[in-house]
Design goal:
Among the domains are: 50 residues; 181 residues; 31 residues, no CATH class. It is 31% helix and 23% strand. The strands form 4 sheets. Strands 6-5-4-7-10-11 form a 6-stranded mixed beta sheet, with helices on both faces. The chain has a 3-stranded antiparallel beta sheet with strand order 1-2-3, with no helix packed on it. A two-stranded antiparallel ribbon has the order 8-9. Strand 5 and strand 6 form a beta hairpin. Helix 1 packs antiparallel against helix 2, helix 2 packs across helix 3 and helix 3 packs across helix 9. It is globular. It starts with 24 loop residues before the first strand and ends in a 12-residue tail after the last helix.
Length: 383
Protein backbone atom coordinates (compact mmCIF):
# COMPACT_ATOMS: atom_id res chain seq x y z
CA UNK A 1 0.00 0.00 0.00
CA UNK A 2 1.33 3.42 -0.98
CA UNK A 3 2.44 5.32 2.14
CA UNK A 4 3.32 8.50 0.24
CA UNK A 5 -0.35 9.54 0.27
CA UNK A 6 -0.72 9.19 4.05
CA UNK A 7 -1.18 12.40 6.00
CA UNK A 8 -1.92 13.57 9.52
CA UNK A 9 -5.68 13.73 10.06
CA UNK A 10 -5.57 16.09 13.02
CA UNK A 11 -7.20 19.28 11.71
CA UNK A 12 -5.41 21.38 14.33
CA UNK A 13 -1.98 20.13 13.27
CA UNK A 14 0.00 22.45 10.99
CA UNK A 15 0.98 19.43 8.88
CA UNK A 16 -2.65 18.42 8.30
CA UNK A 17 -3.18 17.20 4.74
CA UNK A 18 0.48 17.40 3.68
CA UNK A 19 1.76 14.41 1.72
CA UNK A 20 5.11 12.70 1.26
CA UNK A 21 8.10 13.85 3.26
CA UNK A 22 6.27 17.02 4.26
CA UNK A 23 3.79 14.94 6.27
CA UNK A 24 6.40 14.19 9.01
CA UNK A 25 5.01 10.72 9.71
CA UNK A 26 7.15 8.05 11.35
CA UNK A 27 6.69 4.28 11.37
CA UNK A 28 5.49 3.16 14.81
CA UNK A 29 4.57 -0.52 14.54
CA UNK A 30 1.77 -2.65 13.16
CA UNK A 31 -1.99 -2.78 13.73
CA UNK A 32 -4.32 -5.44 12.27
CA UNK A 33 -1.76 -6.35 9.61
CA UNK A 34 -1.21 -2.72 8.50
CA UNK A 35 1.57 -0.27 9.26
CA UNK A 36 0.92 2.32 11.94
CA UNK A 37 2.35 5.83 11.59
CA UNK A 38 2.76 8.63 14.11
CA UNK A 39 2.86 12.37 13.43
CA UNK A 40 6.07 13.86 14.82
CA UNK A 41 4.36 17.23 15.33
CA UNK A 42 1.15 16.43 17.23
CA UNK A 43 1.58 12.72 18.05
CA UNK A 44 -1.59 11.70 16.19
CA UNK A 45 -1.71 8.03 15.16
CA UNK A 46 -2.54 7.10 11.56
CA UNK A 47 -2.96 3.64 10.05
CA UNK A 48 -1.70 2.93 6.54
CA UNK A 49 -5.26 1.82 5.72
CA UNK A 50 -6.90 5.01 6.95
CA UNK A 51 -8.69 6.79 4.12
CA UNK A 52 -8.94 3.67 1.96
CA UNK A 53 -11.59 0.99 1.58
CA UNK A 54 -9.37 -1.38 3.58
CA UNK A 55 -9.87 0.61 6.79
CA UNK A 56 -11.68 -1.39 9.46
CA UNK A 57 -11.56 -4.82 7.84
CA UNK A 58 -10.01 -7.91 9.46
CA UNK A 59 -10.36 -10.20 6.45
CA UNK A 60 -7.19 -10.83 4.39
CA UNK A 61 -6.80 -8.18 1.71
CA UNK A 62 -6.75 -10.73 -1.12
CA UNK A 63 -10.08 -12.19 -0.01
CA UNK A 64 -11.53 -8.72 0.44
CA UNK A 65 -10.48 -7.63 -3.05
CA UNK A 66 -11.88 -10.78 -4.60
CA UNK A 67 -15.23 -10.27 -2.87
CA UNK A 68 -15.49 -6.60 -3.84
CA UNK A 69 -14.65 -7.41 -7.46
CA UNK A 70 -17.46 -9.96 -7.57
CA UNK A 71 -19.90 -7.42 -6.07
CA UNK A 72 -18.87 -4.89 -8.73
CA UNK A 73 -19.34 -7.48 -11.48
CA UNK A 74 -22.94 -8.09 -10.44
CA UNK A 75 -22.82 -11.02 -7.99
CA UNK A 76 -25.19 -11.06 -5.04
CA UNK A 77 -24.03 -10.90 -1.42
CA UNK A 78 -24.87 -14.56 -0.76
CA UNK A 79 -23.09 -15.66 -3.94
CA UNK A 80 -19.97 -13.73 -2.99
CA UNK A 81 -20.04 -15.23 0.50
CA UNK A 82 -20.18 -18.75 -0.93
CA UNK A 83 -17.42 -18.08 -3.47
CA UNK A 84 -14.89 -16.63 -1.02
CA UNK A 85 -16.05 -18.77 1.93
CA UNK A 86 -17.13 -15.87 4.12
CA UNK A 87 -20.34 -15.26 5.99
CA UNK A 88 -22.91 -13.17 4.12
CA UNK A 89 -23.06 -10.73 7.04
CA UNK A 90 -19.33 -10.09 6.59
CA UNK A 91 -19.82 -9.30 2.91
CA UNK A 92 -22.80 -7.11 3.77
CA UNK A 93 -20.60 -5.20 6.24
CA UNK A 94 -18.08 -4.48 3.46
CA UNK A 95 -20.60 -2.76 1.18
CA UNK A 96 -20.99 0.48 3.25
CA UNK A 97 -17.21 0.72 3.65
CA UNK A 98 -16.58 0.37 -0.07
CA UNK A 99 -19.61 2.47 -1.04
CA UNK A 100 -18.57 5.48 1.03
CA UNK A 101 -15.03 5.18 -0.29
CA UNK A 102 -16.25 5.14 -3.91
CA UNK A 103 -18.54 8.13 -3.29
CA UNK A 104 -15.58 10.17 -2.05
CA UNK A 105 -13.43 9.02 -4.97
CA UNK A 106 -16.08 10.03 -7.53
CA UNK A 107 -16.57 13.42 -5.85
CA UNK A 108 -12.82 14.00 -6.04
CA UNK A 109 -12.38 13.16 -9.73
CA UNK A 110 -15.69 14.38 -11.16
CA UNK A 111 -15.08 18.11 -10.96
CA UNK A 112 -15.22 20.70 -13.75
CA UNK A 113 -16.09 18.10 -16.36
CA UNK A 114 -16.38 19.44 -19.90
CA UNK A 115 -19.29 17.80 -21.70
CA UNK A 116 -20.65 18.67 -25.13
CA UNK A 117 -23.63 16.28 -24.91
CA UNK A 118 -25.60 14.90 -22.00
CA UNK A 119 -28.45 12.40 -22.14
CA UNK A 120 -30.85 12.13 -19.18
CA UNK A 121 -32.98 9.19 -18.18
CA UNK A 122 -34.34 7.33 -15.15
CA UNK A 123 -34.14 3.62 -14.31
CA UNK A 124 -36.86 1.82 -12.35
CA UNK A 125 -36.36 -0.52 -9.42
CA UNK A 126 -37.94 -1.02 -6.01
CA UNK A 127 -36.85 -1.15 -2.38
CA UNK A 128 -38.25 -3.59 0.21
CA UNK A 129 -41.47 -4.23 -1.73
CA UNK A 130 -43.29 -2.95 -4.79
CA UNK A 131 -45.45 0.14 -4.60
CA UNK A 132 -48.76 -1.69 -4.87
CA UNK A 133 -47.96 -3.81 -1.80
CA UNK A 134 -47.02 -0.92 0.51
CA UNK A 135 -49.06 -0.10 3.58
CA UNK A 136 -50.26 3.46 4.27
CA UNK A 137 -47.49 3.97 6.85
CA UNK A 138 -44.80 2.68 4.47
CA UNK A 139 -45.99 5.07 1.76
CA UNK A 140 -45.60 8.01 4.14
CA UNK A 141 -41.99 7.01 4.88
CA UNK A 142 -41.11 7.44 1.15
CA UNK A 143 -38.19 5.04 1.56
CA UNK A 144 -39.78 1.94 0.10
CA UNK A 145 -41.65 0.94 -3.01
CA UNK A 146 -40.93 2.10 -6.53
CA UNK A 147 -37.53 3.80 -6.72
CA UNK A 148 -35.95 5.57 -9.66
CA UNK A 149 -32.27 5.97 -10.47
CA UNK A 150 -31.79 9.30 -12.24
CA UNK A 151 -28.73 9.13 -14.50
CA UNK A 152 -26.88 11.53 -16.77
CA UNK A 153 -24.76 10.05 -19.56
CA UNK A 154 -22.06 11.52 -21.77
CA UNK A 155 -22.20 9.56 -25.06
CA UNK A 156 -18.82 10.88 -26.21
CA UNK A 157 -16.72 9.65 -23.27
CA UNK A 158 -19.26 7.04 -22.03
CA UNK A 159 -19.19 8.84 -18.68
CA UNK A 160 -21.91 8.99 -16.01
CA UNK A 161 -21.19 12.40 -14.43
CA UNK A 162 -24.12 12.32 -11.97
CA UNK A 163 -26.78 9.99 -10.64
CA UNK A 164 -29.40 10.05 -7.90
CA UNK A 165 -31.64 7.52 -6.15
CA UNK A 166 -35.12 8.79 -5.33
CA UNK A 167 -38.71 9.01 -6.41
CA UNK A 168 -39.97 10.14 -9.81
CA UNK A 169 -40.92 13.61 -8.59
CA UNK A 170 -40.07 17.18 -9.54
CA UNK A 171 -38.15 17.64 -6.28
CA UNK A 172 -35.82 14.74 -7.06
CA UNK A 173 -35.42 15.97 -10.63
CA UNK A 174 -34.29 19.39 -9.38
CA UNK A 175 -31.84 17.85 -6.92
CA UNK A 176 -30.49 15.64 -9.68
CA UNK A 177 -29.88 18.49 -12.13
CA UNK A 178 -28.33 20.58 -9.36
CA UNK A 179 -25.85 17.78 -8.56
CA UNK A 180 -25.12 17.46 -12.28
CA UNK A 181 -24.39 21.17 -12.69
CA UNK A 182 -21.98 21.14 -9.73
CA UNK A 183 -19.81 18.59 -11.53
CA UNK A 184 -19.67 20.43 -14.87
CA UNK A 185 -17.69 23.46 -15.96
CA UNK A 186 -19.23 26.67 -17.24
CA UNK A 187 -20.05 25.16 -20.64
CA UNK A 188 -23.69 24.06 -21.05
CA UNK A 189 -23.95 20.70 -22.88
CA UNK A 190 -26.62 19.74 -25.37
CA UNK A 191 -29.28 17.98 -23.29
CA UNK A 192 -31.62 15.25 -24.54
CA UNK A 193 -34.10 13.09 -22.64
CA UNK A 194 -37.48 11.41 -22.88
CA UNK A 195 -40.67 13.44 -22.62
CA UNK A 196 -40.85 13.46 -18.80
CA UNK A 197 -41.87 17.07 -18.04
CA UNK A 198 -39.79 17.25 -14.84
CA UNK A 199 -36.55 17.62 -16.84
CA UNK A 200 -37.63 20.87 -18.52
CA UNK A 201 -38.55 22.47 -15.20
CA UNK A 202 -35.40 21.24 -13.45
CA UNK A 203 -33.06 22.39 -16.24
CA UNK A 204 -34.74 25.79 -16.32
CA UNK A 205 -34.21 26.12 -12.56
CA UNK A 206 -30.46 25.57 -13.00
CA UNK A 207 -29.84 27.25 -16.36
CA UNK A 208 -32.39 30.03 -16.26
CA UNK A 209 -32.36 33.73 -15.37
CA UNK A 210 -35.12 35.85 -13.90
CA UNK A 211 -36.44 38.39 -16.39
CA UNK A 212 -39.02 41.11 -15.78
CA UNK A 213 -41.10 41.72 -18.93
CA UNK A 214 -41.56 45.37 -19.91
CA UNK A 215 -44.77 47.02 -18.87
CA UNK A 216 -47.17 47.83 -21.69
CA UNK A 217 -49.47 50.86 -21.91
CA UNK A 218 -48.83 51.66 -18.20
CA UNK A 219 -52.08 49.95 -17.30
CA UNK A 220 -52.78 47.42 -14.58
CA UNK A 221 -50.37 45.64 -12.32
CA UNK A 222 -46.73 45.44 -13.50
CA UNK A 223 -45.80 41.99 -14.87
CA UNK A 224 -44.16 39.51 -12.51
CA UNK A 225 -40.59 38.27 -13.10
CA UNK A 226 -40.29 34.92 -14.84
CA UNK A 227 -37.57 32.39 -15.56
CA UNK A 228 -36.12 32.46 -19.06
CA UNK A 229 -33.59 29.89 -20.35
CA UNK A 230 -30.06 31.05 -21.03
CA UNK A 231 -29.27 31.56 -24.73
CA UNK A 232 -26.77 28.66 -24.65
CA UNK A 233 -29.25 26.17 -23.18
CA UNK A 234 -30.27 23.65 -25.86
CA UNK A 235 -32.64 20.87 -24.82
CA UNK A 236 -34.64 18.44 -26.94
CA UNK A 237 -36.82 15.45 -26.06
CA UNK A 238 -37.66 12.13 -27.68
CA UNK A 239 -41.37 11.28 -27.67
CA UNK A 240 -42.21 7.60 -28.05
CA UNK A 241 -45.75 6.40 -28.67
CA UNK A 242 -46.51 2.85 -27.61
CA UNK A 243 -49.31 0.40 -28.33
CA UNK A 244 -49.57 -2.80 -26.31
CA UNK A 245 -46.08 -2.21 -24.92
CA UNK A 246 -44.47 -1.78 -28.35
CA UNK A 247 -43.00 1.46 -29.71
CA UNK A 248 -44.99 2.41 -32.81
CA UNK A 249 -43.85 5.98 -33.43
CA UNK A 250 -40.89 8.15 -32.43
CA UNK A 251 -40.97 11.94 -32.62
CA UNK A 252 -38.67 14.72 -31.40
CA UNK A 253 -39.33 18.19 -30.03
CA UNK A 254 -37.05 21.10 -29.20
CA UNK A 255 -37.88 22.52 -25.76
CA UNK A 256 -35.13 25.12 -25.24
CA UNK A 257 -33.11 26.68 -28.02
CA UNK A 258 -33.85 26.75 -31.73
CA UNK A 259 -33.83 24.22 -34.54
CA UNK A 260 -30.66 25.79 -35.92
CA UNK A 261 -28.90 25.43 -32.54
CA UNK A 262 -29.88 21.75 -32.36
CA UNK A 263 -28.65 21.19 -35.92
CA UNK A 264 -25.33 22.86 -35.06
CA UNK A 265 -24.91 20.62 -31.98
CA UNK A 266 -25.60 17.51 -34.04
CA UNK A 267 -23.13 18.55 -36.76
CA UNK A 268 -20.42 19.15 -34.15
CA UNK A 269 -21.10 15.84 -32.39
CA UNK A 270 -18.72 12.94 -33.13
CA UNK A 271 -21.38 10.46 -31.97
CA UNK A 272 -24.96 11.65 -32.39
CA UNK A 273 -26.64 12.18 -35.76
CA UNK A 274 -30.20 12.67 -34.53
CA UNK A 275 -31.98 13.65 -31.31
CA UNK A 276 -31.94 10.44 -29.30
CA UNK A 277 -31.30 8.83 -25.92
CA UNK A 278 -29.66 5.63 -27.16
CA UNK A 279 -26.54 6.09 -25.02
CA UNK A 280 -28.20 6.44 -21.64
CA UNK A 281 -30.68 3.65 -22.41
CA UNK A 282 -27.84 1.29 -23.31
CA UNK A 283 -26.03 2.38 -20.15
CA UNK A 284 -29.10 1.36 -18.12
CA UNK A 285 -28.40 -2.21 -19.19
CA UNK A 286 -24.78 -1.86 -18.08
CA UNK A 287 -25.94 -0.63 -14.67
CA UNK A 288 -28.23 -3.64 -14.27
CA UNK A 289 -25.39 -5.99 -15.23
CA UNK A 290 -23.10 -4.52 -12.57
CA UNK A 291 -25.67 -4.65 -9.78
CA UNK A 292 -27.53 -7.78 -8.82
CA UNK A 293 -30.01 -5.62 -6.90
CA UNK A 294 -31.42 -4.31 -10.19
CA UNK A 295 -31.99 -7.71 -11.79
CA UNK A 296 -35.66 -8.38 -12.44
CA UNK A 297 -37.65 -11.29 -10.98
CA UNK A 298 -35.10 -12.28 -8.32
CA UNK A 299 -35.03 -12.04 -4.52
CA UNK A 300 -31.80 -10.00 -4.45
CA UNK A 301 -33.60 -6.63 -4.49
CA UNK A 302 -32.58 -3.97 -1.97
CA UNK A 303 -34.27 -3.97 1.43
CA UNK A 304 -32.85 -0.53 2.31
CA UNK A 305 -32.28 2.42 -0.01
CA UNK A 306 -28.89 3.26 1.49
CA UNK A 307 -27.49 -0.14 0.47
CA UNK A 308 -28.71 0.48 -3.07
CA UNK A 309 -26.77 3.76 -3.08
CA UNK A 310 -23.61 2.02 -1.88
CA UNK A 311 -23.92 -0.70 -4.50
CA UNK A 312 -24.39 1.88 -7.26
CA UNK A 313 -21.40 3.88 -6.03
CA UNK A 314 -19.23 0.75 -6.27
CA UNK A 315 -20.65 -0.18 -9.67
CA UNK A 316 -20.11 3.28 -11.15
CA UNK A 317 -16.57 3.62 -9.76
CA UNK A 318 -15.67 0.17 -11.09
CA UNK A 319 -17.26 0.99 -14.46
CA UNK A 320 -15.41 4.29 -14.86
CA UNK A 321 -11.92 3.32 -13.72
CA UNK A 322 -11.53 -0.46 -14.06
CA UNK A 323 -13.67 -1.55 -17.04
CA UNK A 324 -12.38 -0.84 -20.57
CA UNK A 325 -15.22 0.23 -22.86
CA UNK A 326 -15.40 -1.44 -26.25
CA UNK A 327 -16.72 1.75 -27.84
CA UNK A 328 -13.65 3.71 -26.68
CA UNK A 329 -10.82 1.35 -27.65
CA UNK A 330 -8.13 2.71 -29.98
CA UNK A 331 -6.68 0.74 -32.88
CA UNK A 332 -2.91 0.14 -32.78
CA UNK A 333 -1.09 0.62 -36.08
CA UNK A 334 0.93 -1.48 -36.66
CA UNK A 335 -0.19 -4.28 -34.29
CA UNK A 336 2.23 -5.18 -31.49
CA UNK A 337 3.45 -8.81 -31.76
CA UNK A 338 3.68 -11.03 -28.70
CA UNK A 339 7.04 -11.49 -26.95
CA UNK A 340 7.47 -15.14 -27.92
CA UNK A 341 6.02 -14.73 -31.41
CA UNK A 342 3.08 -17.04 -30.72
CA UNK A 343 -0.53 -15.97 -30.54
CA UNK A 344 -2.39 -13.02 -32.00
CA UNK A 345 -0.72 -9.59 -31.94
CA UNK A 346 -2.16 -6.78 -29.87
CA UNK A 347 -4.42 -4.73 -32.12
CA UNK A 348 -6.35 -2.56 -29.67
CA UNK A 349 -5.48 -0.18 -26.84
CA UNK A 350 -8.04 -0.54 -24.06
CA UNK A 351 -9.61 2.70 -22.78
CA UNK A 352 -11.90 3.25 -19.80
CA UNK A 353 -14.43 6.12 -19.54
CA UNK A 354 -12.16 7.84 -16.99
CA UNK A 355 -9.25 7.65 -19.43
CA UNK A 356 -11.38 9.04 -22.26
CA UNK A 357 -12.40 12.00 -20.06
CA UNK A 358 -8.78 12.67 -19.08
CA UNK A 359 -9.25 11.75 -15.40
CA UNK A 360 -6.58 9.04 -15.40
CA UNK A 361 -3.97 7.62 -17.78
CA UNK A 362 -4.34 3.85 -17.37
CA UNK A 363 -6.79 1.09 -16.55
CA UNK A 364 -7.01 0.75 -12.78
CA UNK A 365 -6.83 -2.51 -10.93
CA UNK A 366 -9.34 -3.28 -8.19
CA UNK A 367 -6.55 -2.74 -5.65
CA UNK A 368 -5.88 0.77 -7.00
CA UNK A 369 -9.58 1.56 -6.74
CA UNK A 370 -9.81 0.40 -3.12
CA UNK A 371 -6.49 1.82 -1.93
CA UNK A 372 -6.78 5.29 -3.49
CA UNK A 373 -6.64 7.81 -0.67
CA UNK A 374 -8.74 10.92 -1.29
CA UNK A 375 -7.05 14.11 -0.01
CA UNK A 376 -8.97 16.37 2.41
CA UNK A 377 -11.37 18.75 0.67
CA UNK A 378 -9.42 21.78 1.84
CA UNK A 379 -6.41 20.51 -0.15
CA UNK A 380 -8.27 19.77 -3.39
CA UNK A 381 -6.81 21.58 -6.36
CA UNK A 382 -8.82 22.76 -9.33
CA UNK A 383 -8.40 20.29 -12.21
Amino acid sequence: MDLSTCYCRNRHCRYYGLLGKAARLQFAGWQCGARRLRCLECGHWVSARTGTAYAGIRTPELTFRDGVRQLAEGASIRTVGRNIECDKDTVSHWLPLVGRHCLGLIDYFFRNLHLTECQLDELWTFVYKKEKHLTAFEKLARRYGDTWIWTAFDPVHKLVPAWRVGKRTLTDAKRFTKALKLRLDSHIPFFTSDDLPHYAVALLAEYGVWVTPPRQFNLGRPPSPRLEPLPDLVYAVVIKKREHGQVTQVATQVIYGTESQVAACLRASPISETISTWGVERNNLTIRQHSRRLTRRVNTFSKKRVYLKYQLALAFAYYHFCCPHRGLREKIEPPIPTKNGHGSPKRWHQVTPAMAAGLTDHVWTIDELLSFRVPPRSKWKMP
